Amino acid sequence: MDWSGAVLPTLSRWFVLSAFIALFGALSFPPLVMRGGSVAALRAQIQPHARRWVSAWIAIAATASLLDALAQRTGWSFITLGARVILLGALWMCVRRSLTLPTLFFGGLLLLSQSFQGNAAREAAWALAVLADWVHLLFSAIWLGGVAFLAAVVLPQARRDAASLRPLGRTVEAFSPLAVMSVLAIGLTGIMQSASLIGSVEALAGTLHGRALLAKLGGSAVLIGFGAFHLLVISPRLNAWRAQAETLAQAAQRFSVSLVAEAATALFVIAAAAAMTILPAARDAFQP
User: Long-range contact list for 212-219, CB < 8 A, 24+ apart?
Assistant: First the structure.
């Protein structure tokens, strides 16, 4: 496939992936991260903002799914669009009724619909490939979507109230192990996918699909660096609850800047991943 012919499908797929990841991150972050009495007050404060954020991303995900179906223009893409509309409607109803487990279930199915849109679904052993891709996408959404939710919902609310900076530190502290676990799962499933779809070192460097993977790996390395900075530098400072409100505010300000930079890097990584779902597998495209 010529790259110029893949630009529009890649952009539409990037839009879908970004919307799904942000949506699932918003759905999973409060129940997975903000548990326990120490962060209960902050969770209560962000609840109305979180609901508006989720509702907005449900609408954005529906729009992205429609644009992606129009860009791909295949029968399967329109079948997938119908399934996604049903899942998004179910998600909206579950969010309105505050049903946590059904919400995560339908969100997981929404991500699964994306796994059927890429190279994994075209493999001979498609069931295992799709499962690996879904797990990869699921943990990517927990990690990167969680970063987006932190930046857009949790941190702005915490910075409005100095008393919320301590539970913010505990929230970051609770999110960090989940992020580490996500990175390990993403790495493992990524190795499985690469072994199948890349085929050789020459194909990695000599095809558009392989170069997209290299770009994705580079961006992921930067994201891991941001995560380490938040765990080792920012979280301890936010947890050091003293009378020096100015010091805490400075730590929150630094956290805000690094989160925005991390979210921007995540968009680059998602763009590379989107290209990989559109481009032919390096194994098949490489011509020695």
Answer: 212/272, 212/273, 212/275, 212/276, 212/279, 213/272, 213/276, 213/282, 215/268, 215/272, 216/269, 216/272, 216/273, 216/276, 219/265, 219/266, 219/268, 219/269, 219/272
What tokens does 28 get?
Answer: 């999973």
**What amino acid is encoded at 212 in this protein?**
A
User: Rg of the chain's alpha carbons, rounded to an integer?
Assistant: 20
**Cβ proximity of 273 and 4 under 8 Å:** no
Which comes out higher in pLDDT, residue 193 or 69? 69
Which structure tokens are listed for 242? Answer: 């003293």
d(CA 91, CA 241): 38
Q: pLDDT tens across 266-279, in order? A: 777 777 776 766 66
Note whether 215 and 247 are within 8 A (CB): no
Q: What's the pTM?
A: 0.82
Query: How many C-beta neighbours within 10 Å does residue 31 have?
Result: 13
The amino acid that residue 271 corresponds to is A
- Sign, CA torsion 163/165/250/156: negative
